[in-house]
Amino acid sequence: MYVRRSAAVLAAVTVIGTVTPAFAADPSPSPSVALPSGLYGTTDPTYDGVWRQSLALLAQDTVDVKPAAKAVEWLAGQQCADGGFAPFRADVSKACDAKTPVDTNNTAAAVQALAALDGHDTATGKAVEWLKSVQNKDGGWGYMPGGASDANSTSVVIGALAAVGEKPADVRKAGKSPYDALLKLSLPCGDEDAGAFAFQPDKKGALAANADATAAGVVGVLGQGLVAAAGKAPASTRKCLGGKTPTPADAALNGAVHLARGMSGTGYLKSVLPGAKDQPDYGNTADAVVALSAAGLTQRGREVLVWLEQHYAAWAEQSGPAAYAQLIFAAHAAGIDPRDFGDTDLVKQLNATGPAPQSASAPNASVTASAKPSEDEEKEDGDSPFGVWWYVGIFLVVGIGIGFLLSGRNKGK
Question: Which of 5, 9, 285, 378 is the most exposed place for a label (fewest CB within 10 A)?
């Protein structure tokens, strides 16, 4: 979700030494502004209103729920005249000015939601033109206009471009496309963290692996958005692909394998925030499921969903609509019914965080995939993303594997 990503951005820019936007802090649980009736969530929307609303509406559309009209109207009404979106505008009767903190992430998320809901071509067109106007010369985007390109921002903008039918590869600045920017942030074969994406280079141009950026980067180089479709299963994941100059497809698979390796002993990704040693990063883990599935490692994504099914509740309840949306995106990408997620209905839980939707379809009976691998998939474990080449030159922990993840969906808890 936006707050989690903002925290990751805050940590990254603190290390890199660049300026951090003042509004990148976590929101207060007690709203300091009046909550609009069309808004999802009950926490202060100052820092994440547009983001969480966009994810909520997009998740509802993904599961054939027609959102409340006032919820859609609220999101559309947050747009500035130039096309950009800020995290939250309490008074939309006042025109946006130079002090309005419009940014690429909220704008791109709003585009993806409004494009999915149809009837908003003018709004999404203006937003995409604004995004193009702030594209950097390396082909990517930073969080704020003019900021250095980062993997997360570039990826969410790619999703917005794809949502309106644009070809991201054709959206160029100084001859560079968004894919060029992302590939520059991908750690090449031979590196200890080969396959990972960095958030941004440091002051010396060095790249440091970042799981949040990797999850975003994998989906981005595949030209997909927040709602991603499962990719074709790779023939093998034993070898790092592309050497020093991977193609987007190479970089996506390498990144997915890196994420899988990072979860091989736990089933989840760990938080990198100060004071959160060995604590799960639930949101990033959900994003990783989307990345794994988009890159063709769908079964591995389902295995991670087993852990999320058993542990997500407290996090999602505290984090609100964006968290439920992320889980719905993860289940959708992995082919798991979000209405039967650890014996609960994620769609019902999301709907309960805001105005009642206009309509909701019945559960999709065709979604019956299990998180437990089949016998054939277990036999193919030699080609798994926990394969040999990742451990060469690093280490091999004897006895650590993913067996505890293969226990199925654990009904009747």
Answer: 378
Strand partners, 341: 344
Provide, rounded to the nearest whole percent, the portion of the chain with pLDDT above 90.
75
What SS3 string covers 247-287?
CHHHHHHHHHHHHHHHCCCCCCCECCCCCCCCCECHHHHHH
> Looking at residue 363, what is its pLDDT?
56
Token pair in block for residue 341: 């997620």
pLDDT at residue number 238? 86
Supply the DSSP string of 178-244, one letter for each residue: HHHHHHHTBPPTTSTTTT-BBSS--TTS---B-HHHHHHHHHHHTT--SS----PPPS--SS--STT
Q: From 344, 247, 332, 348, select the one nearest 287 (Cα to Cα).
A: 332
CATH architecture of the domain with residue range 2-25+37-405: Alpha/alpha barrel (1.50)
Query: Residue 373 has what DSSP assignment?
Result: P
Task: Identify which of 236, 338, 341 has the alpha carbon closest to the alpha carbon of residue 297.
Answer: 236
Burial letters for 303-328: b for 16+ Cβ neighbours within 10 Å, e otherwise?
bbbbbbbebbeebbeebbbbbbbbbb
The predicted pLDDT at position 278 comes to 82
Question: Which pLDDT score is estimated for 361?
Answer: 64
